[in-house]
Structure formats: structure tokens, C-alpha cells
Amino acid sequence: MECKSPMMCVQRVRPCIGRSCKEVPTCEQPDTCEAVVCPPSQRCSLENGKPMCKKHIPPTRGIIGKATLDEKQFQNE
User: Fold this and answer.
1) Is there a domain that residue 66 lies in?
2) Which of 32, 44, 71, 77 is the most buried (most CB within 10 A)?
3) Which superkingdom does the taxonomy of this entry point to (predicted)?
4) Which domain holds residue 9?
5) Taking residues 4-31, what's their average pLDDT?
6) How far apart are the C-alpha atoms of 11 and 23, rounded to whole Å?
């Protein structure tokens, strides 16, 4: 895929369950978070006008949803 100037081509991996996931090319504006592909454990944020990948720890609320722990299992009988 070719992008018109000043855009740049970015290869993004489409989420999938298999091992070899398809890469999808897109044209993005340089020096933006859209033009940066970060590892899954990181998120892009602008720092001094430059995109940077930063470590991201999701809140536990998003992981376990509305699940609650059964406190009886932690009590000594």
C-alpha cells in the first residue's frame, strides 16, 4: 500500500484467536499515536509532542467485571 505525502503506511495486526493474525495496512499522519504500533501491554501517549509507548496496567474492574469473591473460601474453619 502506498500513502500520499505526508501520510505513512502503518501495518496493524487485526485481533484474532489464531497464531498468524492478518496485518492490515493503513495510512496515518506521522508523529501521532495512530502512526505508532505499541505492544499489547503498552498504550501510546504524546509526550512533548512526540508519540511514546508507555506501560499500561488495566484496572481490575475491567478484568473481572461485576464478579465478586466468595469470602467464605478465605475463612479458616
Assistant:
1) no
2) 44
3) Eukaryota
4) 1-15+22-59
5) 87
6) 6
Give the bridge partners for 25, in sequence order.
Answer: 11
Written as nine digits, the cell of 31 is 508523529
Cα-Cα end-to-end distance for the chain: 65
Whether the pTM exceeds 0.70: the reply is no
Query: Which amino acid is present at 14?
Result: R
Strand partners, 51: 46
Q: What is the number of domains present in the chain?
A: 1
55-74: string of b/e by CB count within 10 Å (b at 16+)?
Answer: eeeeeeeeeeeeeeeeeeee
By DSSP bridging, strand 23-28 and strand 8-13 are: antiparallel
Q: How confident is the model at residue 31 (pLDDT cuts 50, 70, 90)?
A: very high
Q: Which three cell numbers stand for residue 18?
A: 489464531
67: cell is 464478579
Cα–Cα nearest to 35, from 73, 62, 3, 70: 3
